[in-house]
Design brief:
Blueprint (H helix, E strand, L loop, with lengths): L1 H16 L4 E6 L5 E2 L15 E6 L47 H7 L8 E6 L5 H20 L21 E5 L4 H11 L6 E5 L3 H11 L3 E5 L16 H18 L3 E5 L12 H5 L2 E6 L6 E9 L7 E7 L2 E4 L18 E8 L2 E13 L7 E4 L3 H15 L6 E7 L11 H13 L7 E3 L2 E2 L5 E2 L4 H10 L4 E5 L11 E5 L2 H7 L8
Length: 508
């Protein structure tokens, strides 16, 4: 009996000493983890994103964690480079941003590209992401070559090889096009430079090797969804591959102090393709937007560790490439000189910019049981509310009419500050009375018919004055505003605003 008992104790000791392999399930979209597989993630609601994750056993020789500590990562002693330092002793004087050659691009980034940063440029197919980055590569290659061709005393230096790895070249790596195809596009947009190096590969190891050997002033990878790592499973563009590619490029950028511009695809709903962790890993996330039918393109910073996230850059797409639009004031205004019924101009805020947007409305008699509502550039749910408010507090009924509302040139009038202009355009179309060309309307309308204040009203009015508007319908505030050369009509409610615009419905 004692022998059997000793054997049982021995087996228990062996089993307790064996490293157990824990199986967890992780969502590749939001990072949720649990011990059970689901077809749909209970956290983010995405289907087919739960993957099996095997937790490796503790490394041999690793220090035993303290009681209550669950991490299996071994503790190591930091070296001199990774040691903690007082924040006051860390200098930022050596951080020089790299200008892109586009003032609008630099505005969005906060003044240029920070060395060692990773910038993700996302946008729909055909919107112009590759063209923007190739033209940026040409601009930077030209400026870098000019800077390295001058010695400190101002004289010309001897020419040297662009492959020498002295940050005097720009590396463009394409996983979607061949070198000849990129060269054709570069010739069309005028981005051909001697120190602009082109490579066509989809292998992550080759990409990292090129960046390490060339040590360029800027590396551009097009795109994150086409590069594949041979060290992990999964197809190109999958969550595992995209995460591995992004992590490797970020490590390379930080260690070599080489900034990387990374192209990202978007899904049908407009979100960036791949795991959500991709946006968390990179330093800057920019959305390149625009309508395929128009030439206007907008670059917005969704995330920026080194600058503001409320800036927007305006570009114009043409056959010769992309040009920046420094003053987009008249982009969203019609060219008609005479006033037309159903139109009204408002001023929206897009980042730190105030943009003039013309709202157009068309009201017709409906032959359908349910009148048609078609909108473009405005919020459909807000239109339904404004139609009800206009009927209840303005006395103008559109409940039995077809209503069409749109903006000029793809402009956006979705913020609440556009309510007054939208309502004025609908009233003008319904009564067949035009609004004067030199009049604009700015204000939010509540369900009670009150005209509410909007952010940065004075800034919007200054832009309106610069564009030649001489009268503005604005919310009545406690502190009256005064604009020299401009008449302000403060409105407390919708009735006052319509009266100022001569759109009040006559009662019989």
């Amino acid at each position: 009996m004692p022998v059997v008992w000793n054997q049982i104790q021995c087996w228990q000791a062996i089993r307790s000493g064996m490293a157990k392999k824990t199986v967890n399930y992780v969502c590749t979209e939001c990072g949720w983890s649990g011990g059970k597989w689901y077809g749909r993630c209970p956290e983010c609601g995405q289907w087919g994103t739960i993957e099996e994750f095997h937790e490796a056993p503790a490394a041999t020789g690793a220090r035993t964690p303290a009681p209550g500590r669950t991490s299996r990562t071994p503790i190591s002693v930091p070296n001199v480079q990774s040691a903690a330092k007082p924040i006051t002793s860390i200098s930022t004087d050596t951080v020089n941003r790299l200008p892109t050659g586009f003032g609008e691009f630099d505005r969005v980034l906060g003044g240029g590209i920070v060395p060692g940063s990773v910038v993700l440029i996302a946008g729909e197919p055909g919107i112009g992401k590759s063209t923007l980055l190739l033209e940026t590569a040409g601009n930077i290659a030209k400026s870098v070559a000019a800077a390295h061709s001058r010695t400190p005393d101002g004289s010309d230096s001897e020419p040297h090889d662009a492959h020498a790895g002295t940050h005097d070249s720009v590396l463009y790596i394409s996983g979607e096009e061949s070198q000849a195809q990129v060269r054709l596009r570069a010739s069309r947009i005028g981005a051909v430079e001697e120190n602009l190096l082109l490579a066509a590969t989809t292998d992550l190891s080759t990409v990292l090797g090129l960046i390490d050997s060339v040590r360029p002033a800027l590396a551009i990878v097009d795109s994150a969804q086409t590069i594949v790592s041979q060290d992990v499973d999964g197809i190109s563009g999958g969550s595992t591959q995209v995460r591995e590619v992004a992590s490797a490029l970020i490590d390379s950028a930080k260690s070599l102090d080489v900034p990387v511009l990374l192209v990202g695809h978007v899904t049908k709903d407009g979100s960036i393709a791949g795991p959500r962790t991709l946006e968390h890993l990179v330093d800057v996330v920019c959305q390149f937007e625009g309508e395929s039918q128009t030439a206007l393109r907008l670059l917005r910073a969704v995330k920026n560790r080194f600058g503001p996230t409320d800036e927007v850059g305006c570009f114009d797409m043409s056959g010769e490439g992309i040009e920046e639009v420094r003053d987009p004031a008249g982009l969203f205004l019609s060219s008609q000189n005479e006033p037309v019924e159903g139109t009204c101009v408002t001023f929206t805020l897009d980042g730190h910019r105030s943009l003039a947007v013309e709202v157009q409305s068309l009201v017709t008699n409906s032959v359908l049981p349910t009148p048609r509502r078609a909108v473009n550039g405005v919020d459909p749910s807000r239109i339904a509310m404004l139609v009800a408010v206009l009927y209840r507090h303005g006395g103008i009924s559109l409940l039995q009419n077809d209503l069409y509302i749109s903006t000029i040139a793809g402009g956006q009038a979705k913020e609440p500050g556009c309510d007054l202009a939208i309502t004025a355009a609908m009233a003008s179309a319904a009564l067949n009375k035009p609004i004067a060309k030199n009049v604009c309307a700015i204000g939010e309308i509540s369900l009670t018919g009150q005209v509410r204040p909007v952010p940065r009203l004075e800034y919007r009015l200054r832009e309106a004055q610069r564009l030649g508007f001489t009268k503005a319908i604005v919310p009545a505030t406690q502190k009256p505003l005064k604009m020299e050369g401009m008449t302000l009509a403060p409105a407390t409610n919708l009735k006052d605003a319509l009266a100022f615009l001569h759109l009040a419905k006559q009662r019989h």
